[in-house]
Amino acid sequence: MTRRQLLSTAVSAPALFSTAKKLSADSKPVLGGAPTAFSLRMRAARQENKPFDILEHCHQLGLTGVETMLPSKDPAAIKAFRQKAEQLNLRVILNAPLPKSQTDVAAFDSAVQACKECGAIALHAAMTARRYEQFDNFPAFKKNFEQNQLSVSLAEPILRKHRIRLAVENH
Fold first, then answer.
1. Each residue's pLDDT expressed in tens, for the chain with a length of 171 residues
2. CA-based, 20 to 30 A from 58: which of 41, 52, 119, 170?
3. Which domains does the chain have, with CATH numbers?
4. This prediction's pTM
5. Core vs surface per residue 37-66: b (16+ CB within 10 A) or e
């Protein structure tokens, strides 16, 4: 690199950085909220007999996503939820209980279909509580781990069918 090339690059660097800074200042952070993060606010709303709208709350905070429960399997509630999420431009991740046995697969399929209709981009599953609190011996941990493996293996074909991802939370 010549001295002239080095100087021309150095002179244009501040313009490049100011443009990058402006772009990042205009864009929202890719962050979402979950019910656990707003538990105190939700409790306060309940005590005042006021509804707590997690979609609206996340939007007001400038978040771009929300993780919450499936509002209902009622088609009208699903439609209203999706319209509101789209209006607020929020990415949605919904919690749906994974099947524990083969008899739960049909209900899980129905829940996943409802989640897709709500506009969910993924499902969230909390697989365990805090291991150090939940288990006091290895056989109990192993039994729970095997149950979780079964749940995921039962869920996987349904998730593939509906083309939706699963986010597994593990403590």
1. 665 554 455 555 455 454 444 445 556 668 888 888 888 888 999 999 988 899 999 999 999 999 999 888 999 999 999 999 999 999 999 999 999 999 999 999 999 999 999 999 999 998 877 777 888 899 998 999 999 999 999 999 999 999 999 999 887
2. 170
3. 29-169 (3.20.20.150)
4. 0.77
5. bbeeebeeeeeeeeeeebbebbbeeebbbb
